[in-house]
Write a structure and sequence with these properties.
255 residues; alpha/beta; Rossmann fold; 8-stranded mixed β-sheet; 36% helix; globular
């Protein structure tokens, strides 16, 4: 089952979507799920994951939300720090208002990058366990790779360039500068290593698997390599494997 709701706090309105099986008010385990750049809370990969975990295990819910400037969000300028604020507010909400006893984080690509920044900047881990699929550890490199010389010139002149799919997102030089400064391959995440699982495709064209290997080795984090999987895990068999690994990681006590 699904339920849409808005989280209104600190002058912000975060559009959220909750997946659950039967009892809306009995969800001791909640997964905060995030997606990649340009997506939205109706993300197909999140929905597929949510259907699996909520039907297989009792008492699990999944909450997804629109990042700033994504989906139906009202903001029109993408600022990474505001993304971190959204993640923080949703995480606190599922604990305080939904009374989750255990909170997990499943994030892909840009969402994984924001989660890493959240951990690094807050200096604490509010999640029982975290699963990253194809994390964009060096988000600047991943996103800036597609910027043309003409767009570089526009950015240098203080103008915006447009990215996105269903919704067009305006990006500025300040946005790229922020990503460049906050390279998540540099901080140390060893304190959180035992609670993190990474899954990455060997054929990822946006985030080379070598970046995931270097990051996992440096921080002693388990990395599951999925043969022939691309960045979005478009092959259903590859996605099924990723979902299975994440569910096993989140619900080991029920295996």
């Amino acid at each position: 089952m699904q339920k849409y709701f808005d989280l209104n706090e600190d002058g912000l309105s975060i559009r959220c979507k909750l997946y659950y099986a039967k009892d809306l008010h009995n969800l001791p385990n909640i997964v905060v799920a995030t997606y990649g750049f340009g997506g939205n809370k109706d993300n197909h990969a999140v929905e597929k994951f949510a259907e699996r975990i909520t039907t297989k295990y009792h008492g699990y819910g999944v909450v997804c939300f629109d990042w700033p400037c994504h989906g139906k969000d009202a903001r029109n300028k993408l600022i990474p720090e505001e993304c971190i604020t959204y993640l923080d507010l949703v995480t606190k909400y599922v604990k305080s208002e939904m009374h989750a006893e255990r909170v997990y984080n499943y994030s892909a690509s840009f969402g994984a990058y924001i989660t890493l920044r959240y951990l690094n900047e807050r200096g604490a881990n509010p999640y029982d366990r975290i699963a990253f699929r194809c994390p964009a550890i060096k988000m600047y490199d991943s996103l800036h790779a597609g910027v043309t010389p003409e767009e570089e010139d526009k950015l240098a002149k203080g103008k915006e360039i447009i990215r996105g799919f269903d919704r067009k997102i305006k990006l500025t030089q300040d946005f790229f500068d922020d990503l460049k400064v906050h390279d998540m391959s540099k901080p140390d995440f060893m304190d959180y290593a035992d609670s993190i699982l990474m899954i990455h495709g060997t054929k990822d064209e946006m985030v080379p698997i070598s970046e995931a290997e270097e990051f996992s080795d440096k921080n002693v984090i388990e990395l599951v390599k999925v043969e022939n999987a691309d960045h979005p895990f478009s092959n259903p068999t590859c996605m099924d494997l990723a979902i299975q690994k994440i569910i096993e990681f989140f619900a080991p006590e029920t295996d």
